[in-house]
Amino acid sequence: MEIRTLKPEEFDASMELGEYAFQYRVTAEEKEKARKRFRPENTWGIFDEDGRLSAKLGLLNVDIFVNGRKMPMSGVAGVATWPENRRQGLVKQLLTHSLKFMNESGKLVSMLHPFSFAFYRKYGWEMFNDYKKYVIPTEKLPAKQVTEGTVRRDVKDIPVLNRIYEAYASRYNGMMVRSEDRWKHAILGDEDHTAVFYDASGEPQGFLLYKVEKQEMEVHEFVWLTEESRRALWTFICNHDSMIKQAVLAQMPMDDGLTYMLADPRITQEIIPFGMARIVNVAGFIEAYAFQGTGEEQTWTVRLQDPYAPWNEGNWRITVSPEGNAAVSKEDEGEPAQLSCDIQTLTTLMFGYKRPGELVNMGRLAGDPEAAAMLERVIPAGRTFLLDFF
C-alpha cells in the first residue's frame, strides 16, 4: 500500500470512486468543469500493489474565524473507499497521515461534515455547532416594518457580498473565510437569487441568498449586520406573501431570536448538528487564540490525550497574560496536572460550544475546581456557526 497525493491524470479514477461511494452521476459537461478545477495536490489516496486507487480523501485549505481572529484550517471532504477495500483500516491510515501533514504544513484546526459522528470522534474530531431550521407558514411571518434604505435584488457583486459576510462571520467561531472562487463555484448557484440591503447612506448591511419555487421561499443564507438590516430583509421575505405558502429558513445560528419576535411563535423548528472540528496543533492554536484578559496573569496545567496526533499529548502549562495573550510550554510527564481532558473536549471548550462548567458536570473535564473556574474567566463566551458545506 502507498499513501500519496493524486496525479493530474488520476482525476478519472478519483471521480469514479466518488460517484460510486456517494451514489451520484455527473454529466459530461459537469465532469469537464470538475476536471479543470481538480487540484490533485489536495487529494490523498491509498493505492494497492497494482497502483489502483483504493481509498481517498480531499483537503480544503482555508482560514476560519475563532474569537474574531483568522486561523488556518484544513477541511476533510470526499472520504471514500471501494466496498471491497472497506474495514481494512484504510480511512484510519488516511486520517492519521492527513493529520501529520496538516500539522507539518501549519494548519491549526481541521473540520469536516461526518457521515457518522461516532466514527470521527474516534480520531479526535468533535461536534462543535448546531443550527436552527425554521418552516414558517405565510400567515405567521413577522410583521412588515418600514426602514430607511433599499433592498436590491439579484446583486451578484462578490466583493459587496463578501464584505458583509466577513463582518458577520467574524462574530462566530468556525465560520469559513470565503475566496472569490468559492463564491463563484460553491455559494452562488445559477438558480439562486440574492437580496442586498443598503442603508440610507448607501452602505450594504445585509443579504439573503434564496430561491422561490412551488409556492415556497427557501432562504439558504440570512446575513445581517444591523437591526435595521434584519428588519428590512424580513420585510422583503414577507413581501412574497402573495406568491408563497411558507418560508423556509434553512440555516440560522442558535442565537437567532426570531420566535421571540413573532406574534405566534408556534412554528416548526429543527435543531440540526452540523460539522465537527478538532485542534490539530494545540500549542499553535492556544498561542493564536484570543483569551479574555482579566488584568492579571493566569496559569494552569492540563494533561491532554490525543493518540492520533501524538505531538499534542502530554502535560501542558498555559499562561495567559493580563491582556489575554497566551504562552504554552510542555511540562514533565511525571508532574501532576491541574486538569485533564481529551482533544475532543478541548476543541469544544476553546470554540465556545460548551463551557468549562458544563464539561466538568458531564465528566469530560476533570481536575481542580479552581482551575476549571479560571477557564470560565479567560475563555470568552463564544458562539459557533458554520454555513458552508464541503
What can be said about this structure in brief?
The protein contains twelve helices and 19 strands. It has helices at residues 11-22, 28-37, 90-104, 117-121, 158-169, 180-187, 227-238, 258-261, 282-288, 343-351, 356-361, 369-378, and strands at 2-5, 43-47, 53-66, 69-81, 109-112, 126-127, 130-137, 150-153, 193-198, 204-213, 216-224, 246-253, 268-273, 276-279, 298-305, 314-320, 326-330, 339-342, 366-367. The chain has a seven-stranded mixed sheet with strand order 1-2-3-4-5-14-6.
Helix and strand layout, with pairings?
Elements: E1 2-5, H1 11-22, H2 28-37, E2 43-47, E3 53-66, E4 69-81, H3 90-104, E5 109-112, H4 117-121, E6 126-127, E7 130-137, E8 150-153, H5 158-169, H6 180-187, E9 193-198, E10 204-213, E11 216-224, H7 227-238, E12 246-253, H8 258-261, E13 268-273, E14 276-279, H9 282-288, E15 298-305, E16 314-320, E17 326-330, E18 339-342, H10 343-351, H11 356-361, E19 366-367, H12 369-378
Parallel strand pairs: 4-5, 11-12, 15-18
Antiparallel strand pairs: 1-2, 2-3, 3-4, 5-14, 6-14, 7-12, 7-13, 8-9, 9-10, 10-11, 15-16, 16-17, 18-19
Describe the protein in words.
There is one protein chain. The two termini are 27 Å apart. Helices cover 28% and strands 32% of the residues. The protein has 3 domains: 2-112, Aminopeptidase (3-Layer(aba) Sandwich), CATH 3.40.630.30; 131-273, 3-Layer(aba) Sandwich (Aminopeptidase); 281-378, SCP2 sterol-binding domain (Nonspecific Lipid-transfer Protein, Chain A). The chain is an alpha+beta fold and 390 residues long. It contains 12 helices and 19 strands. The strands form 3 sheets. A 7-stranded mixed beta sheet has the order 1-2-3-4-5-14-6. A 7-stranded mixed beta sheet has the order 8-9-10-11-12-7-13, sandwiched between helices. Strands 17-16-15-18-19 form a 5-stranded mixed beta sheet. Pfam families: Acetyltransf_17, Acetyltransf_9, SCP2_2. This is Acetyltransferase. One of its GO terms (molecular function) is aminoglycoside N-acetyltransferase activity.
